[in-house]
TrEMBL record, chain A:
The gene is dppB. The keyword Membrane applies. This is Peptide ABC transporter. PANTHER family: DIPEPTIDE TRANSPORT SYSTEM PERMEASE PROTEIN DPPB-RELATED (PTHR43163), DIPEPTIDE-TRANSPORT INTEGRAL MEMBRANE PROTEIN ABC TRANSPORTER DPPB-RELATED (PTHR43163:SF7). Pfam families: BPD_transp_1 (PF00528), BPD_transp_1_N (PF19300). Belongs to the binding-protein-dependent transport system permease family. Keywords: Cell membrane, Membrane, Transmembrane, Transmembrane helix, Transport. The chain crosses the membrane at residues 12-30, 97-120, 132-155, 175-194, 233-255, 275-301. One of its GO terms (biological process) is transmembrane transport. Residues 95-298 form the ABC transmembrane type-1 domain.
UniProtKB/TrEMBL annotation, chain B:
One of its GO terms (cellular component) is ATP-binding cassette (ABC) transporter complex. It comes from Agromyces mediolanus. InterPro entries: Peptide/Ni-bd, SBP_5, SBP_5_dom. This is ABC transporter substrate-binding protein. The lineage of its organism: Bacteria, Bacillati, Actinomycetota, Actinomycetes, Micrococcales. One of its GO terms (molecular function) is peptide transmembrane transporter activity. Residues 30-57 are annotated as: Disordered. Keywords: Signal.
From TrEMBL, chain C:
This is ABC transporter permease. Its main location: membrane. It comes from Agromyces mediolanus (Corynebacterium mediolanum). Pfam families: BPD_transp_1 (PF00528), OppC_N (PF12911). It is found in: Cell membrane. One of its GO terms (cellular component) is plasma membrane.
């Protein structure tokens, strides 16, 4: 087991290099000169443009820029953003906020989605199953910005149950509404996946065996069916956690959450290569760790899966 | 979410006071006219500054709003755009080329450093020097000694006479130079700034009506907390206790917070609420023309758009656009149809410059002119207007395209660029092969500022490469006039020519749209669309 | 699958002595040679759900291919601002958009764009996801390491952000192909991971050991035994990803990197109408209904096929 974990951690190195290179290259390849954009609708003299480019190392060839950045990372220096703030400070400021947001959303997803999916699967074809399908379908066919604006207007402005946007310091109670909105995006997937998996497990021999042994349904469902249905669901939730960590661009913008998605989006639009890559580096690390934990969890959920040959 | 980049607004906007601040407020109505609580903090919307808070390196709204609150320049602009002395005792010149500037005595920065001639001269020299790569360096381009070809640490046109007096020599006469001195690039810097300018940009020290609420008052991407500067005793003395500027990623978020009572004043209204905000905030909203001019530019190099054929086609396009209908329907009346190339809030503006008929909707005449142009050379292809898709321009571009299609019988469409950077790069490099969205927000309230930088031959923002020797001569003459009315007359003559040539097709003036909760009183918006925060009052909770 | 006529050992044909429920399973083993896909078809065609969803999908496809059959109103010409957000009028059964264009016509003409984006993404995601997931899960070891880490690289870049970048880079060539590529190229690792997980579970099953013991080749085991028994969650995810792709197109429009407005699509219209959510909700709701119905049909179809492909679920009926 320890060997397996060590191997996985070593594999993180090429993944990190690959990802940072890919994203750095993509940002670099984006058409448009970020320095020109700094001047708004005014056209600066070319000499000034050149001087500003030089200050941010943007006058160097791509590979030099990338290596300069990479060198910095190994020294623990993530560079400076256009606004003069060290990127490491930005990371330290935004990741905790988004981590909380993603965690709350994941709790909603895991508890709500699995529960509803389980009931749907056990009562396949019933009224509950049909309603769950319709509701999750409506949620999935509405773009997230529509869900977010509507939720903000109804629960924030009209009913006043939640603060309309996230206040200073991003207190947890302000994050609940955006987290719920965020969860709707993957809710249907979790429900459908759980349902499908439960139906499949329900038909397995060991369930029939358990039933024929006289075990009550109350015991069979959590112990035999649910546990054995969770593998694809847990995988998806873990994968989705990574998405939530960084993919909350739209939701974070609408609820003004000072988190990763919004900051990263702005950095991409502004062409701030080093900021973008620093974020992606941290994201990749989180993602790899989550995936490793999930792979280890498989072994817990299903003893037949083993990583030690 | 939309990155807020409202055309011009991404540019410099500055001048005007600031203040406001926090507090979650719901309820607590204040009777109108009641004396405000002088310690109440006013909350307002803003955006994360894109650069360190150094006056010569800040050219966008987010940072500009903060700088205007914490610095006092030689002059300031009132709500109407009129110029008054702030730090300056006097600004004098006999020839509009050599100015003598005297500073009021005994003024201090909030750290105790004196405000003197050196504070200005050093800051300006720093801002102008090429090696410092300051984003607003071109504001010093008219001062003698400015160079884009070599680094010059000092401008030869700036001389310190005594502690409170310095002189400025310009390369040519410019009667509107004193008008521009309220722009943030011309703010002074304290002696302490030079020890570590990077640190200063994070915790700036100014001489204005407000100051940062201690170290770390700038919480990046969240908010900046300002408190009243007790030592400021100038014309913009704050009537409240401070200002919390909350950084919003989108206009929708700031408006939702206004509705939710989490913010006192906002100076922007999202598209989704344009139709309803005046009803939702009765007597507590504004919708008035501002110093922002919107147009689309048709570069002179495009085929079919030069010479006589070009003039005909440009006029036809302009007359085929129903500006009233678009401003009413698409913008819900929050834009004012354009009647010239400047803005109604500028001194010297006139609706009736000869030739401005070309901006009136006249589909028959438009068709006729287009047919005449076709007789010179037949039209083919699609007329496209390029715009940046991250700025909320699609609605009006589609509407204009549809009108051109319907009224001229030609194919027309928008040509979106995903990012502002890409659109601007193509425009700057002259690689763009279509018409493109253009806009201008004045740096200081003067007609020249809307014309010279945009239509003078080789001027900085003349992105369509328009060139007309007559226009150049008139601009130069107008600038040298020491009498403002005589100057404006020359500038209106420039506009007469522009109406014939239409280097850009004027569309409308952006209005300032804002609203506030009943927690605050005395809200007034400045000429540059920013509330005059210093005069807002708020009752005690 | 037509060449595939030989009898196949399905996994429920386990060695008799190890199977207490032999009586149940034995029924099939005595029948004529069975074929997973033929059996599935026999099962599927008995279900009304299949015919309903198939009929709707067929209709949507016909609309996409021949929009001219359904409306004569040009979708993008003759838009008059005087009709802005107006209600139904003669010849315009659903009313008008903010720009004064005919909503019905735009929905009809937007069908092919949205459907194509959805299908291309789905195919891209399914093909890449199944290839990577199946090989990684089944072969394990260094194959798994390489393929999974490659998936990690793509997946740790959030797909909306990646799509923003890809669409910016390819903005000159913006079309349904580029937008589908932008959405799909970073979305497949989710499918791959889910399939890999499922295969990890299935490959330890008794029937796989049985097949191995019988000397069936590894690749054949993967193809004929492991994959069919692991594919159910993939089908669920894939049909939903068709829906997500159509919606993602709208989100990209919202972020300003979607298709140009000259290309009609439901997503484009939804993101434009979002600004009038409170004043003219019909402009948002109508294209959303078109999207929902289409998406619903595909999800239903996915469910039916999933059930049909699951031999145990079938055996139970």
């Amino acid at each position: 087991m320890a060997g397996y974990i060590l191997r996985r951690l070593l594999q993180a190195i090429p993944v990190l290099l690959g990802t940072t290179f890919l994203i750095y290259f993509m940002v670099f390849a984006m058409p448009g000169d970020p320095v020109v954009a700094l001047f708004g609708d005014k056209t600066p003299p070319p000499q000034v443009l050149e001087a500003v480019r030089e200050r941010y190392n943007l006058d160097k060839p791509f590979i030099v820029q990338y290596l300069l950045f990479l060198g910095g990372i190994f020294r623990g220096d993530f560079g400076i953003s256009f606004s003069g703030e060290p990127v490491s400070d930005i990371l330290a400021r935004t990741f905790p906020v988004t981590l909380q947001l993603a965690a709350i959303a994941t709790v909603f997803l895991a508890v709500g989605g699995i529960l509803i999916g389980l009931i749907s699967g056990l009562r396949k074809g019933g009224i509950f199953d049909a309603s769950a399908l319709v509701v999750s379908l409506i949620l999935i066919s509405l773009p997230i910005f529509v869900v977010a604006f509507t939720a903000q207007y109804i629960f924030g402005v009209q009913l006043g149950w939640f603060r309309t946007t996230v206040g200073s310091g991003a207190p947890i109670q302000d994050l609940i509404l955006p987290a719920m909105v965020l969860a709707t995006g993957s809710f249907a997937q979790i429900v459908r996946l759980t349902r499908a998996s439960v139906i499949e497990t329900d038909g397995q021999d060991f369930v029939r065996t358990a039933a024929s042994k006289g075990l009550s349904r109350r015991r069979i469902v959590p112990v035999h069916i649910l546990r054995n249905s969770l593998i694809p669901v847990v995988t998806y939730i873990a994968v989705d956690f990574g998405v939530l960590m960084v993919g909350a661009t739209v939701t974070e913008g609408i609820f003004n959450v000072p988190g990763v998605g919004r900051t990263l989006y702005q950095a991409i639009i502004r062409g701030e290569g080093p900021t973008v890559v620093s974020f992606v580096t941290v994201m990749v690390l989180i993602y790899l760790i989550v995936n490793l934990l999930v792979d280890l969890l498989y072994a817990v959920l299903d003893p037949r899966i083993r990583y030690v040959k | 979410m939309k990155i807020k980049r409202i055309g011009v607004a991404a540019i410099a906007l500055a001048a005007a006071g600031a203040l406001t601040l926090t507090g979650c407020t719901s309820g607590s109505p204040s009777s109108s006219g009641a004396a405000g609580d002088s310690s109440a903090i006013i909350t307002t919307n803003g955006s994360e500054p894109q650069n360190p808070l150094i006056p010569t390196n800040t050219n966008e709204v987010g940072g500009g709003k903060i700088l205007d609150a914490i610095f006092a320049g030689l002059v300031y602009y009132d709500a109407k755009g009129a110029v008054h002395n702030d730090v300056a005792e006097s600004i004098e010149s006999d020839d509009a080329q050599n100015y003598t500037i005297k500073i009021k005595p005994d003024l201090k920065f909030t750290n105790g450093d004196p405000v003197n001639a050196e504070s200005f001269v050093k800051a300006w020299n720093y801002g102008a020097a090429l090696d410092n790569a300051q984003l607003s360096s071109y504001f010093f381009g008219d001062i003698e000694g400015f160079s884009l070809d070599e680094n010059r640490p000092e401008l030869s046109g700036l001389k310190v006479v005594d502690d409170l007096t310095f002189t400025v020599a310009l390369v040519q006469p410019e009667s509107d130079f004193p008008l521009s001195l309220g722009y943030s690039a011309f703010y002074p810097l304290p002696e302490s700034a030079w020890e570590d300018l990077d640190a200063f940009g994070e915790n700036p020290v100014g001489n204005g009506p407000y100051m940062l609420d201690g170290e770390g008052a700038w919480k990046h991407n969240e908010e900046i907390s300002l408190v009243t500067n007790p030592d400021y005793d100038g014309p913009r003395k704050a009537q409240n206790g401070g200002l919390d500027i909350i950084f919003y990623a989108s206009q929708d978020a700031s408006y939702a917070d206004l509705q939710g009572g989490n913010v006192d004043v906002v100076d922007q209204i999202p598209e989704a609420a344009l139709a309803s905000y005046a009803d939702e905030f009765p007597d507590r909203s504004v919708n008035q023309a501002a110093a922002i001019f919107q147009s689309f530019t048709i570069p002179a190099r495009l085929p079919h758009f030069s010479g006589e054929e070009g003039q005909l086609r440009r006029a036809a396009i302009s007359m085929a656009i129903n500006r009233e209908e678009i401003t009413d329907v698409i913008f819900e009346g929050t834009r004012t149809p354009a009647h010239d190339f400047t803005s109604p809030v500028i001194d010297g503006y006139s609706e009736d410059v000869p030739g401005s008929e070309v901006l009136e909707f006249n589909p028959e005449k438009a068709k006729e002119l287009w047919a005449q142009a076709d007789a010179i050379a037949p039209w083919s292809g699609t007329f496209q207007i390029a715009y940046n898709a991250d700025g909320g321009h699609q609605g009006w571009v589609d509407a204009v395209s549809n009108q051109l299609k319907n009224n001229l019988g030609i194919d027309a469409s928008g040509n979106p660029y995903p990012t502002f950077a890409e659109a601007r790069t193509e425009i700057t490099n002259r690689t763009i092969q279509t018409a493109f969205r253009s806009g201008w927000q004045a740096d200081y309230p003067a007609l020249f500022n809307f014309l010279g930088p945009l239509y003078g031959t080789g001027a900085g923002s003349n992105d369509g490469d328009y060139s007309n020797p007559e226009v150049d001569a008139l601009l130069k003459e107008g600038r040298a006039e020491t009498d403002i009315d005589a100057a404006n007359e020359k500038f209106q003559q420039v506009q007469e020519i522009l109406f014939k040539d239409l280097p850009a097709v004027p569309l409308w003036y952006s209005n300032v749209n804002g609203a506030w909760n009943d927690t605050v009183d005395n809200v007034e918006f400045g000429w540059n669309s920013v509330p005059l925060y210093y005069q807002i009052t708020k009752a005690a909770e | 699958m037509s060449s595939n006529t030989r009898s196949t050992q399905q996994h429920y044909v386990a060695p008799v002595e190890e199977t207490p429920l032999v009586a149940i399973d034995a029924v099939k083993a005595e029948g004529k040679p069975s074929n997973l896909w033929r059996d599935a078809w026999a099962d599927v065609r008995r279900r009304p759900m299949f015919w309903i969803s198939a009929a709707i999908i067929l209709l949507v496809v016909v609309v996409a291919l021949f929009p001219g059959l359904f409306t004569q109103v040009p979708p993008n010409n003759d838009c008059q601002l005087s009709n802005s957000n107006a209600g139904p009028a003669p010849g315009h059964p659903l009313g008008f958009t903010k720009q004064g264009c005919d909503i019905y016509s735009r929905i009809i003409h937007g069908t092919s764009t949205s459907l194509s984006v959805g299908l291309i993404v789905t195919v891209l995601v399914a093909v890449l996801g199944i290839l990577f997931g199946a090989f990684a899960g089944f072969y394990g070891g260094w194959v798994d390491s390489v393929l999974s880490r490659l998936g990690d690289i793509f997946f740790s870049i959030p797909y909306i952000l990646a799509a923003v970048v890809v669409m910016s880079v390819l903005s000159k060539y913006a079309s349904i192909w580029t937008i589908a590529l932008a959405i799909g190229i970073f979305a497949w690792p989710a499918t791959a991971r889910v399939l890999r997980a499922e295969i990890l579970r299935v490959k330890n099953s008794d029937f796989v050991m049985a097949a191995t013991a019988l000397g069936v080749s590894r690749f054949r085991i993967l193809l004929r035994h492991v994959l069919p028994n692991s594919i159910a969650p993939v089908i669920v995810i894939t049909t939903i990803s068709l829906a997500s792709a159509i919606v993602a197109e709208a989100t990209l429009s919202f972020l300003g990197v979607g298709l140009p407005s000259s290309i009609m699509s439901w997503g484009n219209d939804i993101s434009q109408a979002q600004r009038d959510l409170r004043t003219a909700p019909q402009t948002l709701i109508l294209p959303s209904i078109a999207l929902s119905v289409t998406v619903l049909s595909f999800i239903m179809l996915g469910e039916v096929i999933r059930d049909a492909l699951d031999p145990k679920a079938r055996a139970r009926r």
